Every structure is written in structure tokens, then in C-alpha cells.
Amino acid sequence: MSLEKALDFYQSIITAEIRPMGSLKEAEAVKVVENSFRNVNIAFVNELARSFARLGIDVVNVIDGAATKPFAFMPHYPGCGVGGHCIPVDPYYLIDYAKKKNGFSHCFLALACKTNEDMPEYTAELVEKGLKAREREIKGTKVSVLGLAYKAGIGDCRESPSFEIIKALKNKGAQVVAYDPYVPEKSDVSKLEDALEGSEAVVIATNHALFGGIRAYEFVNHGVKVVVDGRNCLDKTEMKSAGLYYAGIGR
Q: From CA 127, how far away is CA 107, in angstroms rounded?
């Protein structure tokens, strides 16, 4: 009876297909599987990004090329980490539940989670590498992290990888300044210009439109030497042409 009432309600407000499941467990599993699917595919492209960066291959171009296949391939893109209360969390529900209920180990899924969780540290390593290429040491250097929310256009910081990036940079001795216009209460400064001024390195951790619109000359004018584009949202050619050390995730 409750299932029929739920179907009637949703059919009255949406036109998409509504699929009744066989049990509450199945219904819960749908969400867990969908988010775990994305976690696994993001982990795959994150691993490709780290590999292709050493091979001099732009992984974003490769993904876009593979996406021209009319079937089977579904593009996912690499980044400095996954956030939110779904993709980085739901896989662990499945991992823990399966282990406790029937002793099953989701080894593949656990490895995907670990791969994604390693990306903030990898991002900090890119900053350190870039500074060394410009004959600078990361210790004592001002590094700006732009973005604290876990995705663009919102102020939600749940499970945001930005905080792990900040932690990794501080562990390397960097003087970190964080800025997010959507999260003023957790920002160290109130304006983008204040975050950039005096920073020798910048990390784009959230692809807010404000950050994606920063031009190369703006970085240069503020004394920035290294740009680590954790969301691959900047024009790589423009950044390099301006003399900046540019590193995307797999670019």
C-alpha cells in the first residue's frame, strides 16, 4: 500500500520513469551503486591522469576523444579530489555493510576510494614540483587555495578535498591562504585580489566561475609563478604562454 501511494505521488509531479524496487534494501542499494559507480570511474581517470602526466599526454583530450565513441564509454574527468556527502561516502557504506553482514571484501571499490583520497596529496606535490622548477622552496612560501566548497557554485564544504590539500601544503611548510566567495566564514581573506597578492603559487581547488575566469596576466600581475589547476578549468595554453608554470590534473 505504501509503495503504491509513493508511486502515485511521484507520478503526479514528474514525467520520468519511476521504477519500483523489490525491497527497501534494493532501493537503498540503487543510490549506493550509482555513487560507487562514479567513485570508481573518477578513480580510473585520476589514475590515468597521474600516469599520462609522466608520459606527456593530456588526459582531458584523451577522454574527450574517447567520448566520441557512440556507445559504452561514459566520460568522467580527473580532479584534485572528490567531495560531497555521496560519492566519497556511499562506497564505504557498501564496503562496511558487506564486511559486517557476510564477510565479503569489496577490494576493488576500496582501492578506488583510496585512489581518490590520494589526490589532495598529489595536488600538493604538484605545487612543490612547480616551485622547485621556479627555484623556490615550498617552505615559507605563500600558497593560495582557491575554493573550499566541494563543487562549483555552492557553499557546501562537506567532505571537500580542499581541506586535505590545505593540510598537505601546511605539512610541507607552506603559508596557506584559502579563499572561497561562497564560504566567507572559512576563508582567510575577503577578496580574490587579497588571496593572489604575494602568492607565488595558486591551487584552483573548486571550479567556481570566478576562478575559471582568471586570466594569466592577473596571476602574473600579482606575482604568481605557479598555477596548479586542480579542476582543469583554466586555459592551459594561455597560462604557459604567459610564462607561468602550469600543471593541471593530467595536463
A: 31
